[in-house]
Amino acid sequence: MRAEYDFSKAKQGAVISSPGKTRITIMLDDDVIEHFRVLAEAEGVGYQTAINSLLRGAMAAAANTKREPKALTVATLRRVLREELHLS
Length: 88
Fold this sequence. Notes:
The protein is mostly helical. Helices cover about 50% and strands about 0% of the residues. The longest helix is centred in the middle third of the chain and has 18 residues, at about 45-65. The protein is elongated. The protein starts with about 30 loop residues before the first helix and ends with a helix.
């Protein structure tokens, strides 16, 4: 190891950004997260990737209906996730 390191050009935070992705904070029900963690582990992917895939499928389905998509609200997101997961 060196006696000294030059950190004058160092930046705090993530080293590698993910092009085409935006970090957000979203509140999801515990059972929804747990479902996606189990699903993701079985498929060998991350749970966020599994959620993203489901949302992308919903976008594709909306595009196929050839109508103007509605604004996505928290209530709509929960309803779609519950329908896809077959939850009550």
